[in-house]
Design goal:
Helix 19 links the parallel strand 16 and strand 17. By secondary structure, the chain is α/β, with parallel strands linked by helices. It is elongated, with a radius of gyration of 33 Å.
Length: 982
């Protein structure tokens, strides 16, 4: 690098300067009095501020290569890829793509385009479970931050998902967010200067919605909240809860979101797979947060649907299946099946006794309130007994939640919330407690006391009978599960068993551990995760089951996770599990979709995932749930291709059929599907459900996301990705570089490879260990996939390990040769290659261009940003009369292989001649830089036109002369015998 003093102290964005003994690139936000600088070849972490008035700052030029820095035929390709992987400010129209670890699918660009159309971003992203809502929201956030349209970011979510959101933001989008939870707030407040808020408008945070909604923290948060807010599982903030603490919690969440939305310049992204619970009022409140007009506009009109389409994006799996035709990790199908079992005679006897008890106690109720209380308490007993004997025992020893109700309506609301699975209930994270059965009596009459004692004795006897059913001998459901799980394990699957109650999950896990690990059998790891654990404890429990142990040994392949619905939403389990067993039937089909979505989602390596539903063939409770809800839902989904929520009529339909079972003893409802002559409301449910599906299918074609030409923008993304390094290029570079650096890569069956770190250069070894953790598996596993399990690496350009390898290779190549041992410099800046790939002398140059981007902002201003691009160019003949090759022919030279050796002295002398003649081709390189700038500007304009964004002031301007990083000369291999001539 050479430095030359300049008479002016004005430095353009992207220009080179020399200060503090090194070279820097001038970044945006620089002023004549304060320069914001990044070291040449450095990362964003190295950015510094320099005061020209106090420190010496001069313009600089990039030094050309030295003739003695010769490498082999791989040198050019390694240096080029190392440079491109290191770019964090690409010149393409999507500014964030250079700094994220995600290769977005075409459908995932649709919400981003919709966001770019809006002055203030307001979107409801309601894509199906498992197809990437988090990535879509992250793409929008990353782009808004990269373009400067947002200063900070906050994600509101349940505490159970907070750590996952933080990891996703950091690992995929490079956003280092702080966790704000009850467990972290004390530390955060201690670290914050007195009198200041934990929150800053330009900060990044992941916050527990329930924690921050409280009056103690709410106002401070609203005053200092960043201008970009993502709300995960947004449906839980507008649920139609109207009873007790649940109502207050829901109202506080909604009040918080309403206050955030009232600031019209705040970006708001609502994320949920279940935007519509079947009830219109909560859905209206949800979309009303985006635009006040949506709260009342008729959505059955074209005008109403068009307005909604500006703010609402929703795709099902069938809509995006074509985007995964290239072998990406996304299951091709979901194999679902029902698995029946027949109750043991002792279990059947107790179930019949419970039914008789339910019929008697409800009929004998004194007044409407007591009747509804007894109805829900006996229904709770029926459901818990259908789940497991352990749940039934706990229910029989627990007071019923409905006992506090003062009116029949309140009893129904409490019962629906604690016994059923209503579509608009709060997050299932804390809804896995066993509902109680016991109700107090308030009479003092002697006869009634005797009756009360008889009832208590009857409940105690039923509890004792339930205890005798423990284990696979009398519990046919558990026995069927054991055989089902064993079969899945033998076929190579790793199942999750979903249970409704904590007691059932623990009961199931205990018996699976015993039976599956009998002496002589191949060991199986079993763990239980329920709402009894805190969110952090759940993450730890799953990590213990699926991660490496303290000695670095990998997780057992034969493993089973038993969980309640605290894991049915938001948690990603696809990397470690690939099948689901519904041990308990949910009384809401959406819950089944959510469970299966934990494994059937993007990133799943198993092509066909399995979902099995256990049910009692002679259990009337299971029969009602199957026939009234689950099978109808599945049939409508298969016929229409649309999965719609259960209509509001579902609760009344279920109650009507259960009344037929309990009060009248009628069993036709479960013995023969479709015979609901005595239950008109059940027929109305199916009609309403089918009507909803038909309406949804009809309106789907009018959604805005189906009118956006995603393929056109996908082409722009592919072009940007190509400029930053293709996936194949990154994979090849990482393996070659680690091989040269003594990592000894070895292929794996899954398509990636392993590499040893012990012999790597000290600095690189330390960086890799820091990125993966001190107990990472050895050798390091590199996955040919967009993501990798904890402690392993993904072959993507932004993976920390891949980035570390690229940074090391680039720094070693640009350092003076004497500073680094020869073997630690796999990339070189010069080379002479004799090859059959050329017929005339051909010179390839690795060139780096810098640009100043002038990007129109939403507020009407124009922001300056820095961009970089690396290109290879080549010419035939001499530098004073070059014949320039097309770009594809120049790139092809990177794969040219030497067919004969070249004398080092000859190579050094010849490269020296070429380097001396470089000034003669600089005008052509400047012209190429200007042409590249025009091409990039046209790309920016195409994307902004597609998204209807602003164009005024858009400009891409080259900054200074291009840097020549590498010079590689290719000479035709002689046709005469080797040894004759030079």
């Amino acid at each position: 690098m050479t430095a030359a003093a300049q008479p002016t102290q004005q430095y353009a964005v992207g220009s080179l300067v020399h200060a503090r003994g090194r070279e820097w690139v001038v970044l945006p936000d620089s002023t004549p009095d304060l320069l914001v600088l990044r070291p040449l070849g450095g990362a964003d972490d190295d950015i510094a501020g320099v005061l020209p008035g106090l420190e010496t700052v001069v313009h600089a030029t990039f030094a050309p290569p030295t003739p003695s820095d010769l490498g082999d035929q791989q040198a050019a390709g390694l240096l080029r890829t190392a440079l491109r992987i290191g770019f964090r400010s690409g010149a393409g129209p999507f500014r964030s793509l250079a700094s994220i670890a995600v290769d977005p699918r075409p459908y995932q660009l649709v919400p981003l385009l919709m966001a770019l159309r809006q002055d203030t971003v307001r979107l409801l992203i309601a894509d199906d479970v498992g197809i990437g809502k988090t990535v879509e929201a992250g793409l929008i956030a990353a782009e808004l931050l990269a373009q400067g349209d947002a200063r900070g970011l906050v994600v509101l979510c349940s505490p159970a998902l907070a750590e996952q959101w933080r990891a996703e933001l950091y690992g995929k989008f490079g956003v280092d967010a702080r966790l704000v939870l009850p467990s972290t707030i004390g530390r955060l407040e201690r670290e914050t200067p007195y009198g200041q808020s934990v929150f800053r408008p330009d900060g990044a945070y992941v916050v527990s919605t329930d924690f921050i909604k409280s009056p103690r923290h709410r106002e401070d948060f609203l005053r200092n909240c960043p201008d970009l807010v993502i709300v995960d599982e947004a449906h839980s903030c507008v649920s139609d809860s109207t009873v007790g603490a649940s109502a207050r919690s829901s109202q506080q969440r909604y009040a918080l979101l309403r206050a955030l939305a009232d600031r019209t310049d705040r970006h708001l992204l609502l994320v949920t797979a279940t935007p519509h619970s079947g009830k219109e009022e909560p859905f209206r409140r949800l979309i009303g947060l985006l635009d006040d007009r949506l709260a009342g506009v008729p959505l059955d009109t074209d005008a109403g649907r068009r307005l909604l389409a500006e703010f609402f994006v929703q795709r099902r799996r069938a809509d995006i299946r074509e985007d995964f035709q290239d072998g990406a990790h996304f299951p091709s199908s979901r194999d679902t099946a029902e698995t029946p079992y027949t109750l043991h005679r002792d279990y059947k006897k107790l179930l019949d006794e419970v039914l008789s008890y339910a019929r008697e106690t409800v009929r004998a109720a004194d007044g409407a309130l007591q009747q509804r209380q007894r109805w829900w308490s006996t229904l709770a007993l029926l459901r818990t007994l259908s789940s497991s004997p352990a749940a039934a025992v706990q229910s029989l020893n627990t007071r019923a939640g409905v006992e506090e109700a003062d009116t029949p309506a309140e009893a129904d609301r409490t019962g629906e919330r604690t016994v059923s699975d209503p579509a608009d209930s709060e997050t299932p994270e804390s809804a896995d407690a066993v509902p109680g059965t016991r109700l107090p009596t308030d009479t003092g009459a002697e006869a009634d006391d005797e009756a009360d004692d008889e009832e208590k004795a009857r409940l105690v006897a039923m509890a004792e009978s339930a205890k005798k059913l423990y284990g696979p001998t009398r519990d046919a459901k558990l026995k069927k599960l054991i055989s089902t799980v064993s079969d899945l394990l033998d076929k190579g699957y790793r199942p999750i068993v979903f249970c409704r109650y904590i007691a059932t999950a623990d009961y199931v896990a205990d018996h699976l551990k015993k039976v599956l690990n009998k002496k002589g059998a191949e060991p199986v790891a079993v763990a239980s995760v329920t709402g009894q654990l805190s969110p952090d404890q759940r993450v730890t429990r799953i990590a213990e089951l699926t991660g490496t142990d303290e000695d670095g040994n990998p997780a057992p392949e034969r493993r089973v996770l038993v969980a309640t619905d605290c894991l049915s939403e938001g948690v990603n389990l696809q990397e470690s599990f690939d099948s689901v067993v519904h041990y308990d039937l949910a009384w809401n089909p959406t819950r089944h979709e959510q469970r299966e979505g934990r494994v059937d989602r993007f990133g799943q390596r198993t092509d066909v995932v399995k979902a099995l539903t256990l049910y009692g063939a002679d259990n009337p409770v299971d029969g009602i749930v199957l026939n009234v809800l689950l099978r109808k839902h599945e049939r409508i989904r298969r016929v229409t291709g649309i999965s719609v929520p259960v209509p509001q009529e579902s609760e009344s339909a279920m109650q009507a059929v259960f009344e037929g079972l309990i009060l009248r003893g009628e069993r036709s409802a479960y013995e023969q599907e479709g015979l609901f002559a005595q239950e008109e409301v059940a027929e109305q449910l199916e009609i309403a459900w089918q009507s909803s599906a038909d309406r949804e299918k009809r309106y789907r074609s009018r959604y805005a996301q189906l009118t956006i030409k995603k393929e056109e923008v996908a082409a722009e993304v592919d072009e940007v990705r190509a400029a930053l390094g293709t996936g194949e290029e990154v994979r090849d570079f990482t393996r070659r570089a680690l091989g040269a650096l003594r990592g000894m890569p070895a292929a794996t069956k899954q398509g990636g490879f392993t590499a040893h770190t012990d012999a790597l250069p000290q600095g690189l070894r330390d960086t890799v260990s820091h990125a993966l953790g001190p107990r990472h598996p050895r050798p390091v596993v590199f996955h040919d996939a967009p993501s990798a399990p904890r402690g392993e690496a993904a072959l993507t350009r932004t993976d920390p390990v891949v980035s570390a390898v690229a940074r090391f290779v680039l720094d070693a190549a640009l350092d003076d040769a004497g500073k680094v041992p020869e073997w630690q410099r796999p990339a070189r800046r010069c080379g002479v290659v004799r090859t059959a790939a050329v017929e005339r002398n051909t010179t390839l140059l690795l060139v780096r261009h810098r640009f100043q981007l002038n990007l129109p902002a939403r507020d009407g201003s124009v922001r300056e940003q820095l961009a970089e691009d690396a290109r290879v160019v080549a010419y035939r003949g001499r530098p004073d009369a070059p014949e320039w090759l097309p770009e594809d022919e120049a790139v092809a030279l990177l794969e040219a292989r030497a067919t004969q050796n070249t004398d080092p002295k000859f190579a050094t002398e010849h490269i020296a001649e070429i380097l001396a003649a470089l000034p003669a081709i600089m005008p052509e390189l400047r012209d190429q830089s200007a042409e590249l700038g025009r091409t990039l500007e046209a790309s920016h304009r195409r994307v902004r036109t597609a998204s209807r964004a602003r164009l005024a002031g858009l400009k891409v301007v080259p900054q200074g002369d291009p840097d020549i990083l590498g010079v590689y000369h290719y000479r035709p291999a002689p046709t005469f015998p080797q040894g004759v001539g030079a």
